[in-house]
Amino acid sequence: MKLRPLFVPLSLSLSLATSADRAPKTCVNAWKPNLGAPDFPKGFGVNIHFTEAQPGEIKMIAAAGFRWVRMDLKWDATERERGVYDFSAYQRLMSGLDQYRIRALFILDYGNPLYDGGTPPRTENARQAFARWAVAAAKTFAGRGVIWELYNEPNIKMFWPPRPNVDEYIALALVVGRAFRVVSPNEKLIGPGTSGNDFPFFESCLKAGRLEYRSAISFYPSRRSARSRRLHEYA
Questions:
Q1: Counting beta carbons within 10 angstroms of the beta carbon of residue 45, is it exposed (0 to 12), middle (13 to 18) or buried (19 or more)?
Q2: Is 15 in contact with 38 (CB distance < 8 Å)?
Q3: How far is CA 99 from each of CA 61, 69, 92, 104, 152, rounded to the nearest angstrom?
Q4: Which of 10, 85, 86, 120 has minimal CB crowding within 10 Å?
């Protein structure tokens, strides 16, 4: 059996927001070392695009040495009626992963046609609804070692149409972060999950205090150029 073509190998590129000291020199709120920072397990993972695995599929992921999967937890797929949440498909996925001791990084993402016409949450009503849904997901999977990533590549127009807007993302991140702190303080929440190491986007988030509610900074290191030419960006 061959793995589905949508599998994309990835490394867990997490820079601890409270323990790293590598911020752009222009950032006035560069973070400082903190010995109390949360500990993130190391490892490699694979990006998937399914909740219903084919027979033997998760076993093959484990056999390849991957210990994580990164998967969209889509708002519109799990809240089809306002205030009614159905995470059963993701519960089945988690049961399959548990058999092979694979952990999940779930991306809280995208719009919902019930709010703002399905666009990224950019009104207060939609942001609050997104936050209620996000903490409902966190409560459902509490204590199972999930890492929660707030959004997928919000710095490109494909995922934040019609164009990226860091202020809109920050507003959403602050609402979700505060909700997590109250309802699920022990769950690890990361972000912004940018396409590439977008330092201006990171800096804007830092200046707005968004990382006060985050365990780590995350980004997705997709590249068309040779990997060896880009390693210096992560050093």
A1: buried
A2: no
A3: 12, 14, 11, 13, 27
A4: 86
pTM: 0.81
Sign of CA pseudo-dihedral 181, 89, 147, 114? negative
Residue 30 lies in a domain: no
77: pLDDT confidence band, cut at 50, 70 and 90? very high
Residue 191's domain is classified under what CATH number?
3.20.20.80
Whether the predicted pLDDT of 3 surpasses 90:
no
pLDDT of 58 over the 70 cut:
yes
Parent domain of 163: 8-24+40-234
Q: Which phi and psi angles does 60 have, rounded to 5°?
A: -65, -35
CA max distance for the chain: 52
Q: How many domains does the chain have?
A: 1
